[in-house]
Amino acid sequence: MRRPVVGVIGNAHRIENRFAVQMVGERNLRAVADVAGALPLMFAAAPEITDIGALLDVVDGVVLTGARANVHPARFGTEPDPKHEPYDIPRDDLALSLTEACVARGVPLFGICRGLQEMNVAFGGSLHPEIRELPGRMNHRMPRLESGEIHPDHKVIFADRHDVALTPGGAFATLLGCEIIRVNSLHGQGILEPGKRVVVEGVAEDGTIEAIRIADAPGFALGVQWHAEYDPQRNPINRALFQAFGAALVAHKRA
């Protein structure tokens, strides 16, 4: 049997502020290849050139990656603010419809950071553009120097920063074999109100939603707020997630 194929969503980007490209972080591709045991295949987050039905006929699963851009507030009934830019409206258009299609067809779906947020919005949930502005919340954004610049050391940026309490007996606790995990944190936007079918299974110590599943999904449909793609080759928590995703790919392919 051939290796499963995983569609990894792209992000709109401009090189030299002139050339439009679609971009995927290499860590996402390596996590899919090294740990999930699949062939990563980047697809464009642009509805006019990516047909969802055709895509799902080709791939055995989908990863919705993190991204610099926030989900546009119009998607959950809030007015946009320039300070929360950039946005990637074509990705919004594709990812939200793709999320629903994956769940309906039982295609394994793994959402990471923005991907978790897209899964929530796709099922009617809302987001807050700056979780750290809510009372009692910590700063979930990546570490910066005193000068305000992003810290230059990736080991510092992606270091585990807070605990997440998992629902006892839930999908994540069962998969990971524990009820408390420690994760990295590199996001500003986060879930405010969960969507109708969104089951919250992991919460940070400050109340921020960190892990979700889609209720009654016929296949793997999990999302995490942290960047699980950073180190699944070494981190046992992230490795277990990508291995479980890989097992779901094989099961779906055989079915």
Q: In words, what does this structure look like?
A:
- The protein is built from seven helices and 13 strands.
- Strand 5 (61-64), helix 3 and strand 6 (109-112) form a beta-alpha-beta unit.
- The protein has a single domain, classed as Rossmann fold (3-Layer(aba) Sandwich).
- 43% of the residues are buried.
- It is an alpha/beta fold and 255 residues long.
- A nine-stranded mixed beta sheet has the order 4-1-5-6-13-12-11-8-9, sandwiched between helices. It has a two-stranded antiparallel ribbon with strand order 2-3.
- The protein has helices spanning 26-34, 52-58, 89-105, 114-122, 154-157, 171-176, 236-254; strands at residues 5-9, 11-15, 19-23, 39-43, 61-64, 109-112, 126-128, 162-166, 180-183, 190-193, 198-204, 209-214, 221-224.
Supply database-style keywords.
Rossmann fold, 28% helix, 255 residues, 7 helices, nine-stranded mixed beta sheet
Total of DSSP H or I helical runs spanning 4+ residues: 7
Within the CATH hierarchy, at the fold level, what is the topology?
Answer: Rossmann fold
Proportion of strand residues: 15-25%
Derived structural class: alpha/beta
End-to-end distance: 13 Å
What kind of oligomer do you see?
single chain
Number of domains: 1
C-alpha Rg (nearest Å): 17 Å
> What do the pLDDT scores average to?
91
CATH architecture: 3-Layer(aba) Sandwich
The succession of helices and strands, N to C, reads EEEHEHEHEHEHEHEEEEEH
What's the CATH superfamily, by name?
A: Class I glutamine amidotransferase (GATase) domain
* Low-pLDDT residue spans: none
Structural shape: globular
Kindly provide the name of the CATH class. Answer: Alpha Beta
Strand order of the largest sheet: 4-1-5-6-13-12-11-8-9
Number of strands: 13
- What summary fits the major beta sheet? 9 strands, mixed
Tell me the helix content.
Answer: 25-40%
